[in-house]
Amino acid sequence: MITSQTLRQDSEQSLRCFVVGPIGDPHAAQGSPEQEAYEHHLGIFEQVIAPACEKYAITALRADGIAHAGDINEQICRHVVESDLVVADVSGGNPNVMYELGLRHITGKPTIHIGEAGQLPFDIASIRTIRYQRRRSHLAAARREIESALEAGLRDGFELLTPARVLRGFQTGDGPASVADDGNGEDEDLPGLLDDFAVIEDGLDEMTADMEAITKTIETIGALTEQSGTEILDLTRANAPMSARLAAVARYAETINAPGGELNAVAGAFAERMATLDSGVRAALGLIETTLPEERGEGAEEFLEQLMSLDDAAQDSLAQIGSFGASAGALVRLSRHLRKPAKEISAAVKQLTSAITRMGEWAAKARALACNATE
Description:
Blueprint: H1 4-8, E1 16-20, H2 33-54, E2 59-62, H3 72-82, E3 85-89, H4 95-105, E4 111-116, E5 129-132, H5 136-156, H6 193-237, H7 242-289, H8 297-334, H9 339-374
Parallel strand pairs: 1-2, 1-3, 3-4, 4-5
Helix pairs in contact: 2-5, 3-4, 4-7, 6-7, 6-8, 7-9, 8-9
């Protein structure tokens, strides 16, 4: 457990709570979504989070309240990692919030999730979240829930959050003891940093295998399509009856039906692995970013290389399947026999495009970190 005594250890200052959440834009046009978001989340901070913290002499701070000059991104990362407490408003699954939340989780320090009802991201739905609605009575209830969570945590200890899609159990060099301490500041059952990297790398290896299977299936469909195209062209040149051409199309549909279904299935597995690993990979990248290049070790560099290599292969496959997505609609219009395989191929293209786009974000960050390490 992480108790108030642990949090106050070696410090006479009051506890610090950093509030992670959407900020909006106070300078945006009146009535714009950005301006409304600013007013809404400022209200949540002032009416719900800050008063709850103040009850226990905890100093609450938002990113726009950081007074010191400097790189704002670095300052936010430091507050996320070093603050005694973090309250995270996960409403809408804001990408910056989710990134900062993943970075926070790997520290093992106390974190409280709140979110607007109906706006909670599905991928952290398993973590207890204090929900609020915009009506005054509901905001007051949310404030009381935060107060109760703080009271229980300060009295009995804060439970370490260990969601499956983040690096679990990692302790910063000056961080608190883990939730189940063995007396030596370590828990034999919780995975260490290298264990967590190994889990992510295993997942990336599986994604690499998925990508190889996708490439082979695409090549199979391409070869069958070329073969069928030649047959239909020959029939057209021979002025064969339409029934003969239709029969050729039906045979083609039958031959690509199985590989089309296989392509969609593997694409689904690939996208699922991507969604499962996303928070963990982003958290790992955040950890690497806050570590000096000379202190990263070979494991971190190999991890960055793996992300970049996987993205290169994924981009090649995406280029190959681009034509499939464009032709899927034409196949459906050509014959009813082609509707099923065309639907499978179209679904696969959609899943892969979305997943590979997210993978590109990983790789871009990895390339930037690798480049910084060589400068």
